[in-house]
User: What shape does this take?
Amino acid sequence: MIMKLLRRLIAEDRSGATAIEMGFLVALISVAMIASLHTFSNQLNNTFLISAKNLLVP
Assistant: This one.
């Protein structure tokens, strides 16, 4: 009886799989954001330096 109940709960409960899938998606998006920021960091830094210099020059 208890084994039947456990099998039914394990077979029907999919909430754990959904949480794991969402965790993988969040991790993948985070890695993509970090990689893109790392790739474009020099360009972003140069853009901010140029705009800061233009603000300081009258």
